[in-house]
Amino acid sequence: MAHKRLKFLGVAAAVLMVAMACGGSPSGGGGTKQYKIGLVTDIGGLNDKSFNHLAYVGLEKAKSDFGIVDSVTESHSGNDYVPNLTSFASKNYDLVIGVGFLMQEAVGTVSGTFPNIHFAIIDGAGTDSTGKDLQHTNVQSLFFKEQDAGAMVGVISGMLEKQGKAKKNKGVISAVGGVSIPPVNHYIAGYKWAATMEDPGIKVEVGYSNDFTDPAKCQGVAKGQINDGSDILFQVAGGCGLGVLQAAGQAGLYSIGVDADQKAADPSVIASALKKVDVATYTAIQNVVKGQFKSGALTFSIANDGAGYAVDNLTLPADIQAELKTVQDKIKAGTLTPPADIP
């Protein structure tokens, strides 16, 4: 019996040594690091059907692919940004993601306090109180050429209006922005530029709700534009902008969604300008998991499939479809460049 016991222990020891050599552990955990990723939303929250929601979609895909531990904290005001980011950083999360331009200064502050924690921010950089990029080596900025996506839906609006295939056909379309910040204005710049390219006589009315969360505020701006003759309304205001889609639907007009495909938000939605925040979020997480994190900026555009458009509750005429392909191909090739500033 003693001989058999010694033989068993020898075999067990050999198995243990092989397991450890292969990166295993006595607990059978495999020794594989499980990365912790924290996501802090902007004030629009996860139910904005827009970029906060898309960031969560990217997070969940990364969870499925990489087995990360994920956690989400929603911000309800600007005062929540620093505490929410700090909470994850203080728990030694491997990556803390801030969603939104309005979180720039908070990311700048917290990333400076926790220099050994990786941060990523959608639509911005880690800045000081003046908006200056602090260029912290632990911060990755995830930017978009929203003007690319705006241009695509501008083509649709401009051509429909020029051909008399909208509803009122008074030569007026419009956009409702949330707050006048670069990501919002990039969209509107591309939209106005492309619509005017297709129909030089078109009028593009632009208004702001100064809000990203309350649909009633955006609905009020939209109703004013409808009274001015607009019959295609582009929302660029996150959750607030759902009020634009509703106002267009109630008036029997067309609307255009933003960031995500908002086809289901209202029957009036004929297209959506896509900003692939899910792709950017996933990319940032993947970089950390694969040990490829780099500070500085990554930019997502039509050229790298980080922006685009969806056609929704309307079958577009063949000539508009053809023009969309032509414009998209030219933007990809760099022979057409939508402006970043509203013309």
Element string (H = helix, E = strand): HEHEHEHEEHEHEHEHEEHEEH
Helix proportion of residues, in percent?
Answer: 40-55%
**In total, how many beta strands?**
12
| Strand residues, percent | 15-25%
CATH architecture of the largest domain: 3-Layer(aba) Sandwich
Shape: elongated
Specify the biggest β-sheet: 6 strands, parallel
Strand neighbour order, sheet with most strands: 2-1-3-4-5-11
Distance between the termini: 90 Å
CATH classification, class level of the largest domain: Alpha Beta
Domain tally: 2
Mean pLDDT: 91
Q: CATH superfamily of the largest domain, please?
A: Response regulator
Spans of at least 5 consecutive residues whose pLDDT stays below 50 are: 1-30
User: Structural class of the helices, strands and pairings?
Assistant: alpha/beta
**Rg estimate, integer Å:** 24 Å
Q: What's the tally of helices?
A: 10
Report the CATH topology name of the largest domain: Rossmann fold
